[in-house]
Specification:
Elements lengths: L3 H13 L2 H8 L3 H15 L4 E4 L2 E4 L1 H27 L6 E5 L2 H6 L11 E5 L3 H10 L4 E4 L8 E16 L4 H8 L4 H9 L4 E3 L4 H11 L9 E3 L2 H8 L5 E5 L4 H5 L3 E5 L5 E10 L5 H14 L1
Parallel strand pairs: 3-4, 3-5, 7-8
Antiparallel strand pairs: 1-2, 5-11, 6-9, 6-10, 6-11
Family: Belongs to the LysR transcriptional regulatory family.
Organism: Flavobacterium sandaracinum
GO molecular function: DNA-binding transcription factor activity; transcription cis-regulatory region binding
Length: 297
Amino acid sequence: MVNLEWYRTFKAVYKTGTLTSAAEVLFISQPGVSLHLSSLENYVGYKLFDRTGRKMVPTEKGKVLYNFIIEALTKLEEAEKNFQRSTEKNTPTISVGMCFETFQITLEQYISTLPFNVIIQFGDYPEMVENLEKGILDLIITPQMVVKNAIEYQAFSSETIVLVGGSEIDDLEFNSVGKNENLEEIELWLKQQKWYGTTGDMEHLRRFWQLNFNKHPDFRPNYIVPNLNSIVRCLSSGKGLAVVPDFLCRKEIDNGKIKLIWEGKTPLKNTLYFATRKKTIYEEEIALIKKIFIELN
């Protein structure tokens, strides 16, 4: 008999493209993801993904299976959530969407103090907006505005995307190169360094490079790690460069564990928004979560 968790895992791998990212979404170990996936493949009798480097590329049979189960699986997940709410009438359950790093830096330490149940979900921002509109999520922390009639946005903070380096990086050498503001020399020096990236998309690096050099980066990071917090930890113990939001590394910069190398000739800034439905029964609970984020800024 097939296990429903195998389908959940299959969906997570299909959506994220890697075993590591699927494990983060599901809050299970990577070996657990591999076991679920191999069990499902053995059950159906064919490969669902081709392993290309670090990426999991769905096979044609995998695409057919995904399209066949996704609607039913989504309905089951919604039913599970709604059942939980209906059986806990005295304790509301609030579903909040944000990126993994934002959760770790901000809300994680306050979860146990909240007087209601909380479900945290990670994912792509457009997908989270769709889930907010459908009622699957109640609040999103997002740097992107996707206009929907039923959704309202409230700006509450901003972040600057900066170039940072490890504690052993020679920032004096960069300052020497950069003092003449010759962008070709700056780009050449940067491309000669070791770079860190994440298993997800490289939106921060692409936007930073486009803004400062008017082109897309024509190189791949040397070291690919699970998330932006991992990058900050790796940089704290060695050389290398990365482009990350400043709020993720302020403490490490202040205590000298990593170095702020360059904000760019034109700083790259993101505005952060609270996104909620215009009509919600969880105004008090949402207001409390908003208060936590506002007080931390």
